[in-house]
Amino acid sequence: MSTILCSRASARNVTSMIRSIAQTKTPQPFTSSRRHLSSALPSASRFTPVFRPICSSNSSISTRFLIAAATRQQKTSIIAAAAASRRLFSVTTTHQATYNQVRRGCRKEQRARRRRSPALSNRPELKGVCLKTGITKPKKPNSGERKTARIRLSSGRVVTAYIPGEGHNVQQHSVVMVRGGRAQDCPGVKYHLVRGALDLGGVATRLTSRSKYGTKKPKAD
Fold this sequence. Notes:
NA-bd_OB-fold; ribonucleoprotein; CATH 2.40.50.140; elongated; alpha+beta; single chain; Ribosomal_uS12_bac; 15% strand; 5-stranded mixed β-barrel
């Protein structure tokens, strides 16, 4: 694990490095492994290799000076030494699966994601007819009365939808618009009714988030 310390190098070491590079005639192959970096360095160099990561601007200037002064054949050895001086955090190699492993079934398909609103079948909204309205008790630790309705969608499926907002005018045979979205504290309720659409009116006294509850902006007097 011998690398070239380029940061804070004295002029004597730099000069000896350039002289040894000029004397060497055979180019050394570039290898990224630390184990073979000692063979990439010139054998006639009197410079003592030290392992230290490059972290200053002076080191990059010294490396550029060495590369510019060296011949084209010796640039690969300098680049290899400079690259190895950087700290490597992982030396493990990734192995791909062999043919026999794949044939035995090491690769398995991922399961498809479960749809949160399966009755809509990849549609944002569906029209439906109200069958009946009711009240659902939320699960612990919440308490109250959640207004819900059983809706027969235009696709023929019957679902339970939550009626948001304070008060509503939904009754049997009302035509409503159903969107996706569950009620967090009501088990089995995976849909919401759209306020202000079709027969379902908006919340008249709503002042914030009016677009979610079908309320127009109040007129300034």
